[in-house]
Amino acid sequence: MQLSREALLRAYRQMKIIREFEERLHVEIQTGEIAGFTHLYCGQEAVAVGVCEHLSVEDKIVSTHRGHGHCLAKGCDVNGMMAEIWGSREGLCKGKGGSMHIADVDQGMLGANGIVGAGSPIGVGAALAAKLDGKGSVAITFSGDGACNQGTTFEAMNLAVVTKAPCIFLFENNHYSEHTGFEYAVGTQRDIASRAEAFGMKVWRGDGTDFFSVHDTMREVLDYVRAGNGPAAVEFDTERFFGHFEGDPQRYRGPGELDRIREMRDCLKIFRANVTGAKLLTDADLDAVDKDALEAIENAVVAARAAARPTPADVLADVYIAY
User: Fold this and answer.
1) pTM, whole model, 2 decimals?
2) pLDDT band at 186 (very low <50, low <70, confident <90, very high)
3) N or C: lower Cβ tally within 10 Å for the chain?
4) What pLDDT, on a 0 to 100 scale, did the predictor assign at position 177?
5) Residue spans of beta strands (DSSP E) within the chain
6) Euclidean distance between CA atoms 21 and 34, whole angstroms
7) Angle ∠(217,272,237) on CA atoms, nearest 5
8) Is 252 exposed, middle or buried (0-12, 13-18, 19+ CB in 10 A)?
9) pLDDT confidence bin for 193, thresholds 50/70/90
10) Is the distance from CB of 45 to CB of 70 less than 8 angstroms?
11) Domain-by-domain residue ranges, the chain?
């Protein structure tokens, strides 16, 4: 299915916003103004955007500790995101979530999570709610290669199959669980998706560095799950450009590895080459998006620095949700 010019520009803008958001945080975290651990999503933008471009606000996603890209791709406000990371009461979670616990239920973003594998059961719960609702929405749980070794993930996959929950278990295989290589830590060694097959669900695989591979694959997966066939799993092979967390020296990387993946496996470069090569967009079109994205991130940072901070009285507010 050929995407329109407008859809292509939107997808590129979403990926570029995520890239510039994360690249700017990589700089700003060094100033000491941002509290807590930060895990950057640079390199994996095609996955978040290729997935979320298919979703509506009724569809739910559950993220990971590396969740900024998922939030932005699902429609969370850039300024609200930046303010949250700066710890402002003007942030999406009023400064109480920070980098690893951002959520925006109004956008169907049920939250990032600092516990590896903890999002999978939440995703199944959201999927069961969607099944009972009967309106055809789904839940997607984003996980990394590390989460595929967690018991919570196994239990969630089994429950989803048993209940035929419309849940998609999405694994972003960026080859490193913290500092441990995928080839060493995952027993199947071949892939992650084959593990999900053992639970009786259908699986897909795609190139996470190619937006079009992700987008086309997810169309198939979503059509299958929305049709009432129960859960599915998908694995996207991708890369992360920065360390597991900000400050990680990445000594586990091989010589020249980072230079190689930035040159050969950058999803933004691959997207640009694909669309300009096919004469769908021009370099000038994409350059204009680049400029706008940089301005948007600069404005978000300026606003976040100036935003109001929480007061001592705020500590007891919003502890419980009033239904």
Assistant:
1) 0.95
2) confident
3) C
4) 82
5) 60-62, 139-144, 167-173, 176-177, 180-181, 202-207, 232-237
6) 14
7) 40
8) middle
9) confident
10) no
11) 5-307
- The partner residues of 173 in beta bridges, in order of sequence, read 237
% helix, strand, coil for the chain, step of 5: 50, 10, 40
State the CB neighbour count (10 A cutoff) for residue 19: 23
Taking only the tens place, the pLDDT of each residue in 31-88 is 999 988 899 999 999 999 999 999 999 999 999 999 999 999 999 999 999 999 999 9
Task: Extract the tokens encoding 57.
Answer: 């606000």
Cβ partners under 8 Å of residue 67, min gap 6: 39, 41, 100, 102, 112, 113, 142
DSSP class of residue 2?
P
Q: Which CATH number fits domain 5-307: 3.40.50.970, 1.10.287.130, 3.40.50.300, 3.40.1000.20?
A: 3.40.50.970
Q: Outline where DSSP puts E strands in 49-201.
A: 60-62, 139-144, 167-173, 176-177, 180-181
What mean pLDDT is predicted for residues 192-202? 90
Longest dimension (CA), the chain: 57
What is the rounded CA–CA span in Å between residue 173 and residue 129? 28
Give Cα 297 distance to the centre of its chain. Answer: 18
pLDDT at position 240 over 70: yes
pLDDT of residue 150: 87
How many residues would you count in the chain? 323
Specify whether the CB–CB gap between 138 and 128 falls below 8 A: no
Cβ partners under 8 Å of residue 108, min gap 6: 55, 56, 57, 58, 59, 60, 61, 74, 75
What crossing angle do the helices spanning 5-28 and 283-306 adopt, rounded to 10°? 40
